[in-house]
Fold this sequence. Notes:
The protein is an all-alpha fold. It is about 65% helix and about 0% strand. About 25% of the residues are buried.
Amino acid sequence: MARHSNVFRDFDRTAWLALAFLSLAMLLGGASRADVFSTMIVRLAAIAAAAFCLLNAPSKPSAIKAPEYAMLFLAALMVLQLIPLPPVMWQALPGHGILTKGAEAAGVQNVWRPISMSPDRTLNALFACIPPAAALIVLMRIPLRALRMLILVPLLMFILSGIVGFLQILGGGSGSFYFYKVTNLGSAVGFFSNRNHQALALVLTLPLLAVVPALFSRNEMRAKFVAQLAAIGSAFVIPMVVITGSRTGLILLALAFPVALSMALRGVSKNKTKKAGALVNIAAPSLFILVIGIIIFMASRSKDSGLARLYSHDIAMD
Length: 318
C-alpha cells in the first residue's frame, strides 16, 4: 500500500483525468478512418476531458507553447483547405484537372470547390486533431512529477502493442489478433489498423525507454533494474519496427535511435559508480545478442518487412 501511495502521491484530479484519457485513447484510438465507431468515442472523451480541465484545472498551463502552436498550425492548414474557392482559382491548382473534366462531363459549371480534393477526409483529419489537442490541454496543466509518471502509460501500451504485433506474425498474418476490418492484414500492426501508426508508436518508445530509468533514480537498485528492462525493451522494439513493413518507420527509426542512445548514455555517464559500469557491461552485449536473434527470427517469419518493401515497386499498393 505504501508503494501505491508513493507512486501516485503527486497526482491531482487533472493527473487522474490524464491517466484515464490516455488509457482510453491508447485502447480505442488505433484507426484514422471516419467510419470506425471507437474513433468517435475517443473524440467525445477528448472534448469532455478538455472541457473539464479548462473549467476545473487548479494549476496554470505550462510555459511551453511550441506544441500548442504546432497543433493550431495543423488545424488552420486543414481549415484553409476547406474554404470554398471560385472556379477560376481551384481549377488552376495542380492535380485538379480531373475535377474540372468531371464537372464538364456532368454539365456542372461555376461550382465553388475547396483546395481539398476530398473534403470529407480533410474534415475527418480536422476532427482527428481533437484528441491530441485535448491531451495538450490536460497534460500541460498537471504537476511535473505526475507528468513524469504518466509517460509510463504510452510506454507500456506501445510495448504491449508491439507484443500483439509479434503474435500477429506468429499467427501467420491471419485475422485472429487483428482488431479492425480495414487493416494491413499480414503486417505487425498491433493495436492499430495501419502499419505506419504502429511503427511510429514503436519508434516513440525509444526515447521513453532512454529516460524512464531516471524516474527511479532515488532508488539505485531499482533504477538499474529498470535500465536493464529498458535495454531489453529496446532490443525488442528495434526489429519490430522493421517487421511492421513501414518504410516511414525505418526513416523515423534512423532519426530516433541515435537520439535515444545519446539520452541513455548521458544518463549512464552521470552515474560514476562501479555498479553502473557493470550494468552497462551486462546490458550492452545482451542488447546486441537479443537484437540479432529477434531480427533473424522475425525476418524468417515475415515476407512484408520494411527492408523488403524498400526494394519493392508496387505502384498500385503505394
